[in-house]
Amino acid sequence: MITGSLVALITPMTSDGAVDAKKLDDLIEFHIQEGTHGIVAVGTTGESSTLTHEEHANVIRQVIATVNGRIPVIAGTGANSTHEAIDLTRRAKEAGADACLLVTPYYNKPTQEGLFQHFKSIAEAVDIPQILYNVPSRTACDMQNETVVRLSSVPNIVGIKDATGNLERGQALIEAVPSDFFVYSGDDPTAVGLMLLGGKGNISVTANVAPKAVATAAELAIAGDSQGAHEIDQTISPLHMNLFVESNPIPVKWACAQMGLCGTGIRLPLTELSSAHHEAVKQAMIQAGIL
């Protein structure tokens, strides 16, 4: 199973919003050199909602080809249509992804039974390890722990990215699911806390700009070293907060551009980071030792 710091990778774009394939390759090499344990391609942070299906599949194929087996690649393949999610998941499997990450359906607000049937249908249709993704702040859909426990017995469903930021709820989930069903954090401010409670990794936005620190903190937290993990996490905690001053991935793409990792391109309806927030993000990067 995949553990540790799993970067929710941005999708670099040119100024006109086209995917920048050269910068994507450079980003992958940067993360491998910095010790990132795995890459999540075309998740929410990768602007999956505004890429075409062909672009989506192409980015996943490129990430897998460039990584070339050096670290695991998890493909974002969720959708608010079960049929669409199956199609994206099938394409990711054909490309050679190690696993897929499937967000809860957004906007249409399914019931808990609808969520169960949605994810069960995808798991039955495509034979690849699948990680659920619950982020109610973005989707207006909250998958309850009881539903996750039901899904944990479905073959191919191997874990969940819990982005609720609720440690009490996360601990209850860890205790309720089988030991071979992995709970990952999807919330940087509480990630170390969840891993110390038994979480197996952090699918991280902050790792885009501070990969080595996030990876080391994850290793220490998973090993049970609370003091060491918290000491490192404290140095990057300003990033956890300031990379969300506007909707993700607006701030993190701006931060990556300041580091020379990519250009400032982003796709509408998202726009570049407002100038009013530049100083706050810059100061967080300075405090983290990045600039």
Automatic annotation (TrEMBL):
Protein's pathway: Amino-acid biosynthesis; L-lysine biosynthesis via DAP pathway; (S)-tetrahydrodipicolinate from L-aspartate: step 3/4
Record-linked Gene3D superfamilies: Aldolase class I
Site description Part of a proton relay during catalysis, residues in chain: 44, 107
Reaction(s) the record says it catalyses: L-aspartate 4-semialdehyde + pyruvate = (2S,4S)-4-hydroxy-2,3,4,5-tetrahydrodipicolinate + H2O + H(+)
Matches recorded under InterPro entries: Aldolase_TIM (IPR013785), DapA (IPR005263), DapA-like (IPR002220), Schiff_base-form_aldolases_AS (IPR020625), Schiff_base-form_aldolases_CS (IPR020624)
EC number(s) on file: 4.3.3.7
Cellular location(s): Cytoplasm
Gene Ontology CC terms, in alphabetical order: cytosol
Cross-referenced Pfam families: DHDPS
Lineage top rank: taxon: Bacteria
Keyword Cytoplasm: yes
Binding site for pyruvate: 45, 203
GO biological process: diaminopimelate biosynthetic process; lysine biosynthetic process via diaminopimelate
GO-annotated molecular function: 4-hydroxy-tetrahydrodipicolinate synthase activity
Alphabetized UniProt keyword annotations: Amino-acid biosynthesis, Cytoplasm, Diaminopimelate biosynthesis, Lyase, Lysine biosynthesis, Schiff base
Active-site positions on this chain: 133, 161
Family of this protein: Belongs to the DapA family.
NCBIfam families in alphabetical order: dapA
Subunit structure: Homotetramer; dimer of dimers.
Protein name: 4-hydroxy-tetrahydrodipicolinate synthase
Organism the protein comes from: Marinomonas spartinae
